[in-house]
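name: query_chain
kind: protein
chains: 1
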Amino acid sequence: MLVFWGAIRNPQSAIRNLTVFLLLLLPQAAPQAAPEDPIEESLRRFTKVYSVIEEEYADPVISEKQIYQGAIPGMLRRLDPYSVFFDAEQFRTLQQHQEAKSEGFGTIVTVMPGRVVVLEAFTGSPAARAGVQPGDEILEVNGTRIAWLGLEEIVEVLSAARSQRVQMLVLHANGSRVESITATPTQLAESSVDRAFFLRPGIGYLRISSFENDTAGELKKAIENWGPRLRALVLDLRENHGGVLGSAVETASLFLPQGATLLTAQGRKSEAKQFTVEKADAVGQKLPLVLLVGGRTASAAEILAGALKDHHRARLVGETTFGKGTVQTVYPLSAGTGLALATARYLTPSGRFIERTRTAQGGIRPDAEVPPAGYNEFQAFLENRTEFLEFARRLRAGGRPIPRDFEVTPQLVDDFRAFLNDQQIPVNEKLWSDNRNFIRTRLKTEIFNLTFGVAAGDEVAAGADPQVQRAVELLSTGPQKL
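structure:
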């Protein structure tokens, strides 16, 4: 009798050890000459190992899980961090993202452990038609109580619900009633140029969240809509992880002259390929330009940033970009699956690799290094407790009118302090005085989120963003500030 004492700490290690043990039990074949094709021999060994696992493993083996989630991802991890295999559902989602479409309920929510609060329900969306409103709290999704879940578990529940009819238990913002609501997700068009407002007269702000097929057209339309009111532009790429290469190239043509080199793609299977501006667009050629970049700026976004910097067409503000300088070629495979494979590496117009490696920092360095805004201990405490959002919910539920020119008065700040006292959070005078400006901005941001939408809240927050304000300063005072 075998007795196992203790627990298996690493299940994957246990599977590998079991596989080795089973192979040792197999009868040994007579030595054979090495086959001419090493790939064929490796595949034969893999097939043999998998066959033993499938026949002898203690539990039933799901082939799709072992191959799609185990063997293939394991092989790709040996290549680089970016090559990815997609099962049929993941590949369908990827294709939807490339078309700037996804399925959902048309809401923006804030997620915290044990709670989900709606910040915005888009007009005409499934959620809005079902009666969901800003400030509502989602208590339950398809029988799963949100209060029992941690942050990652909530995200999983919400993600799974995007592809099916869902029943939600909702506590309305005024706290008067709990309602059971049913909604069916639908395909929603998503704009990749998702923020557009003026930071001050003449200086516009546009945020590109990703590079999709229509990004350049959306950006051009936004610039044209502003017309002569726009005299300088801040382009925010800080949360842009990349996307379609051709879209980034097309976007660059809005700001660079015809014939300008954008990048060089250098791979093993083909000669180096140079990308240039084939046809310049006059819409942004003369606009003074600042790009906001950071550690999450990657891939196609880095291509645009590197090209505009190398041609001295834009100044970069923020932090060094991520350093994902590889060409991802997407190959459709059988059964609806797909493979995104790194087939080449990017070089900027000046000939520098973008990719971050063990021996090279990579990425695009900004002209003006500006760290993002941080929180002190008191501010982080209030954020983690979501006190600003709770106060804004109560204010909105109370029916107080909030006009577009609304400002947070000293009296409202004092009301928030009284609210904190009710929550058993006493604040001394020095702490209150030192953080008063931060409190005023955060209150206005959350009030605008719930009243006018998250885009309006982002516009308020930009006024206190040090990277945004540095960009405005550069555009207002000229290049001598670099």
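note: Confidence is low (pLDDT under 50) at residues 1-30.
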